[in-house]
């Protein structure tokens, strides 16, 4: 027998996830509004990340070169290319381009963008049936130290 979590616990959990994925408070606001309206929070999260310019959409069959193109279009990754932070001026994604497996490409890209203080989170929608929605979403976010 399972019980549903209280709405406040669910809202808090979604707010924490939003904060981990993107610092833009509008992301959490959109998800919270969806929860209050009884709408699917996952769809609201995806839309809000996309609106924040933090989302690269890919298909399972895509390869490393398409991942590199998608990541290069994200404002956060583009800014990392221009920032003078004492770190390498751009994530070196050359090794990712030649990878044919998307999972391997995501892992390699995650390592490359870590060098400029970013992280990559792969969000698998799992359905893959809807031609309008890619089955993979990658959110680039600022790296944080995880609590121990």
Provide the fold topology.
Elements: H1 7-21, H2 25-37, H3 41-51, E1 55-58, H4 64-72, H5 75-82, H6 94-97, H7 102-114, E2 118-124, E3 136-142
Antiparallel strand pairs: 1-3, 2-3
Protein name: DUF6630 domain-containing protein
Domain DUF6630: 13-127
Summarize the structure.
Helices cover 49% and strands 12% of the residues. The chain has two domains: 8-52, no CATH class; 54-148, no CATH class. The protein is built from seven helices and three strands; from the N terminus they run αααβααααββ.
Write up this protein:
This protein has 148 residues and is of the alpha+beta class. It is 49% helix and 12% strand. The protein has helices spanning 7-21, 25-37, 41-51, 64-72, 75-82, 94-97, 102-114, and strands spanning 55-58, 118-124, 136-142. The two termini are 32 Å apart.
Kindly list the characteristics that best describe this protein.
2 domains, about 50% helix, single chain, 7 helices, about 150 residues, alpha+beta
